């Protein structure tokens, strides 16, 4: 009798699908399966299993069960564990429910291995294929496709070395290392057609694997390991050399590394036969590439010790903490010590860091403290690397997991501690389905795992602060910087006054220029925040007032200068949309009115850099923004040039504010970060306060005290004033009052409902249908704003309308949202055109 299972598939539908398991296969809750859906094959996750078919079941069979018990009697053994633990499945169900996200899409976000099957095919060489290749290399002969009669170990002689015969050889050569190779890569490398590959598969020289099967096969690395207790017999010098090398490296070394050092494999094999060395095969370790080892461990100061004591004594049960420590108070050292305490009790930890928060410095500290026990998960990993990390974690080989947002789903056994660094950071919110906030998921995960969770920040979000006020989270305070270093003094420059006094609109104030000059002359470093990338924000027509907009989005195009081009070559320069990436050159005339009087508005980081180069011609200037930092390596390189002092003046966007600990920086300039205060966003003040505090916090972290110059047009705004005094309490008091008064989070909950369509009429129509439904049903306890066009009315050619829902009760809000989705379904509004963003961070 087959088993019936409910399978969550990665499609935007709030439901699971029923399938029967193939004969003799025993999927369990949490197993991955391949399921046919329409014309596709998808990887799904089994949510439940039953012996009886549902009433309306039409026979549909699973294609395969990827993680299963070989037979039912094995169910209890460790081998038979499904891929997703019960804790993670419960977490997924919680996310689906809390964020109104389709369960299949939630699971897809959790599982790195859940790609669509049809998309990735890999090939791998077989043993027979190796023989064929070896033979052909020996005989310098080609390998024909058609040698059915010939003995594969004796390929025909040189009479068939034509191009066609070499294709099989090129295929085999490309696969020779033994690693599976993607079909696309293989075809490019060998020039093979799909039918060529099929022919070799039929001959069993190569094997074809689907993505799922391939990713099950983890990459391994072979190590030579010294057997310590062996008494040493007489040895040849070559043998002694290998043993010496092994001893020098702490008793083990990857075999590849031995070869690189010119030590012979044959000698190694002799040592193995003599019982002096053994070969271990292990999952290839992930290397913390290119990092400097850090200095000896830090002695915790009094407040760090207290913080650690609170955290450590709570291990073993669910305890949420807010670690509120000013910038430079040494939170990182507390995290590391807490992870060590967890490890001492055989408990694993997850440390979450913001998108670019994982600096080489932090990686170095982790490596020094925990070495190969660390697994790193970040967005720059390839799917293979990610799944390798995943398996190391799941096997218990890496009880220290560090990563960005989705690392919160790492399948860590015996999880004891979760740390969320810079918990206020916006990058924890995923801005696509499922729209979860990893910080909040962290708290739930800790709850399911009976673990401690620590949310750390110098500028906690209002939500987290409120939870600590309500005693939901226990608050730990670290009020001072390490070694009694002072927080930097902040000077506010009123840019309105600056304009009146100088009669000019300058990007940099006189005070900022003077103080930068002075810092550079003293041999210190300065960083300047200019929180927009590009050269100018916008290009505007003086005649008709139109801004040049993106053709796909209702957004002004940002002007970028091509690097290293002549100063005034304005025409032909690049305009770029920061939403969709659309690019065009700057036109000679306004496309609306044909006037030639186009002018450039507002300065971005690129222009900032240019101005600074003019003002400080001898400064060693660097720029840090999304244009100069494309990948991790760019960031590493820039930071290491800063640490070494090679750069003494850095300009950049908010990236420069994130947790960097550069001791030479004594001056921080803040330029135009307060324009955000006029955005239609109730979190604007919070964002400005956080950014100002964080960037100010980069100054004076070394021996010398720091100074901050903030240029502002709102010198009386409470967020600016509080940030200037490092007064979180003053800010929070004002801000909480305003939020309570306006019924905004943390007083009550909020959801943004986006209705989108490539057809304006359709989007308008659908949002009207939903608006009308809200009017008619008038749900109790929910305030509805809208529908109206979203502040950004069109993105990537998709028209956007939205409704904002507020309620004091999450349950009420989610109930109403669910009824709304049901109504949308009956009104034939496709689910994929409605985005529900619970606890929305951006209302744009
Ligand atoms: N007990 C200590 N004694 C001396 N120096 C310390 C101590 N603890 C930490 N430090 C040093 O203080 C500096 C700041 O620490 P860290 O980067 O952890 O601060 P933080 O609290 O995370 O600040 P931010 O919120 O700004 O990121 C680092 O250079 C660190 O090496
Ligand atoms: Zn665009």
From TrEMBL:
The keyword Repressor does not apply. Its EC number is 5.6.2.4. One of its GO terms (cellular component) is primosome complex. It is an enzyme of class 5 (isomerase). Residues 143-170 are annotated as: Disordered. Zn(2+) 1 binds at residues 541, 544, 590, 593. InterPro entries: DEAD/DEAH_box_helicase_dom, Helicase_ATP-bd, Helicase_C-like, P-loop_NTPase, PriA, PriA_3primeBD, PriA_3primeBD_sf, PriA_C. Zn(2+) 2 binds at residues 550, 553, 577, 580. It catalyses: ATP + H2O = ADP + phosphate + H(+); Couples ATP hydrolysis with the unwinding of duplex DNA by translocating in the 3'-5' direction. Residues 312-478 form the Helicase ATP-binding domain. Its cofactor is Zn(2+). Binds 2 zinc ions per subunit. Keywords: ATP-binding, DNA replication, DNA-binding, Helicase, Hydrolase, Isomerase, Metal-binding, Nucleotide-binding, Primosome, Zinc. GO terms for molecular function: 3'-5' DNA helicase activity; ATP binding; DNA binding; hydrolase activity; zinc ion binding. One of its GO terms (biological process) is DNA replication, synthesis of primer. Belongs to the helicase family. PriA subfamily. Initiates the restart of stalled replication forks, which reloads the replicative helicase on sites other than the origin of replication. Recognizes and binds to abandoned replication forks and remodels them to uncover a helicase loading site. Promotes assembly of the primosome at these replication forks. Component of the replication restart primosome. This is Replication restart protein PriA. The lineage of its organism: Bacteria, Pseudomonadati, Acidobacteriota, Terriglobia, Terriglobales. The gene is priA.
């Amino acid at each position: 009798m087959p088993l019936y299972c409910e399978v969550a598939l990665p499609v935007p539908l709030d439901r699971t699908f029923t399938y029967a398991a193939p004969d003799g296969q025993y999927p369990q809750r949490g197993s991955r399966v391949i399921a046919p859906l329409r014309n596709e094959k998808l990887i799904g996750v089994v949510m439940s299993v039953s012996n009886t078919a549902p009433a309306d079941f039409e026979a549909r069979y699973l294609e395969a069960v990827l993680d299963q018990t070989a037979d039912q009697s094995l169910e209890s053994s460790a081998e038979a564990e499904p891929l997703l633990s019960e804790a993670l499945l419960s977490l997924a169900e919680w996310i689906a429910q809390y964020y109104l996200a389709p369960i299949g899409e939630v699971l897809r976000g959790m599982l790195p291995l859940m790609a669509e099957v049809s998309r990735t095919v890999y090939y791998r060489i077989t043993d027979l294929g190796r023989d064929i290749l070896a033979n052909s290399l020996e005989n310098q002969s080609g390998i024909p496709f058609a040698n059915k009669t010939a003995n594969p170990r004796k390929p025909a002689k040189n009479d068939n070395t034509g191009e066609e015969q070499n294709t099989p050889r090129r295929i085999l050569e490309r696969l020779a290392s033994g690693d599976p190779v993607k079909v696309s890569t293989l075809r490019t490398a060998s020039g093979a057609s799909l039918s060529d590959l099929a022919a070799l598969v039929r001959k069993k020289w190569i094997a074809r694997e689907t993505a799922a099967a391939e990713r099950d096969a983890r990459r391994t690395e072979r190590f030579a390991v010294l057997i310590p207790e062996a008494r040493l017999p007489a040895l040849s010098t070559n043998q002694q050399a290998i043993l010496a090398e092994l001893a020098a490296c702490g008793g083990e070394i990857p075999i590849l590394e031995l070869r690189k050092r010119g030590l012979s494999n044959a000698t190694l094999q002799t040592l193995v036969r003599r019982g002096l060395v053994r070969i271990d095969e292990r999952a290839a370790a992930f290397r913390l590439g290119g990092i400097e080892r850090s200095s000896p461990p830090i002695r915790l100061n009094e407040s760090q010790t207290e913080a650690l004591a609170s955290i450590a004594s709570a291990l073993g049960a669910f305890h949420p903490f807010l670690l509120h420590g000013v910038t430079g108070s040494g939170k990182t050292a507390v995290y590391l010590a807490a992870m060590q305490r967890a490890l001492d009790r055989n408990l694993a930890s997850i440390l979450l860091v913001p998108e670019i928060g994982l600096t080489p410095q932090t990686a170095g500290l982790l490596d020094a403290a925990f070495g190969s026990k660390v697994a790193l998960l970040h967005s720059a990993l390839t799917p293979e690397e990610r799944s390798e990390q995943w398996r190391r974690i799941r096997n218990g080989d890496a009880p220290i997991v560090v990563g960005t947002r989705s690392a919160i789903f790492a399948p860590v056994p015996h999880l004891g501690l979760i740390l969320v660094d810079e918990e206020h950071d916006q990058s924890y919110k995923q801005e696509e389905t499922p729209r979860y906030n990893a910080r909040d998921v962290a708290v739930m995960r800790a709850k399911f795992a009976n673990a401690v969770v620590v949310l750390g920040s110098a500028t906690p979000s209002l939500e987290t602060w409120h939870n600590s006020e309500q005693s939901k989270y226990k608050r730990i305070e670290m009020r001072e910087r390490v070694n009694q270093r002072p927080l930097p003094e902040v000077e506010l420059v009123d840019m309105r006054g600056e304009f009146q006094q100088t009669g000019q609109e300058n990007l940099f104030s006189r005070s900022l220029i003077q103080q930068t000059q002075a810092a550079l002359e003293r041999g210190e470093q300065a960083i300047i925040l200019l929180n927009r990338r590009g050269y100018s924000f916008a290009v505007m027509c003086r005649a008709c007032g139109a801004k040049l907009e993106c053709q796909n989005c209702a957004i002004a195009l940002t002007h970028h200068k091509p690097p290293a081009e002549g100063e005034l070559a304005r025409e032909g320069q690049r305009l770029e949309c920061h939403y969709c990436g659309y690019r065009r050159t700057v036109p000679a005339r306004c496309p609306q009115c044909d006037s030639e009087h186009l002018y450039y508005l507002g300065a971005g980081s690129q222009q900032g850099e240019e101005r600074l180069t003019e003002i400080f011609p001898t400064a060693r200037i660097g720029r840090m923004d999304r244009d100069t930092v494309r990948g991790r390596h760019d960031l590493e390189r820039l930071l290491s040039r800063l640490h070494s002092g090679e750069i003494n003046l850095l300009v950049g966007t908010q990236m420069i504010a994130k947790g960097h600990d550069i001791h030479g920086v004594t001056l921080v300039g803040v330029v135009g970060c307060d324009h955000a205060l006029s955005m239609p966003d109730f979190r604007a003040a919070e964002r400005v306060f956080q950014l100002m505090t964080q960037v100010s916090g980069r100054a004076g972290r070394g021996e010398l005290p720091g100074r901050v110059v903030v240029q502002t047009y709102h010198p009386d705004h409470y967020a600016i004033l509080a940030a200037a005094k490092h007064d979180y309490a003053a800010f929070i008091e004002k801000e909480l009052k305003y939020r309570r008064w306006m019924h905004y989070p943390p007083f009550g909950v909020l959801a943004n409902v986006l209705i989108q369509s490539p057809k304006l009429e359709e989007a308008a129509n659908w949002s009207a249908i939903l608006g009308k439904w809200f009017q008619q049903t008038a749900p109790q306890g929910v305030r509805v704003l809208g529908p109206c066009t979203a502040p950004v009315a069109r993105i990537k050619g998709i028209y956007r309308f939205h409704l904002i829902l507020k309620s004091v009760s999450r349950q009420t809000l989610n109930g109403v949202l669910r009824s709304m989705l049901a109504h949308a379904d009956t009104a034939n509004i496709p689910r994929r055109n409605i985005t529900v963003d619970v606890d929305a961070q951006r209302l744009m």
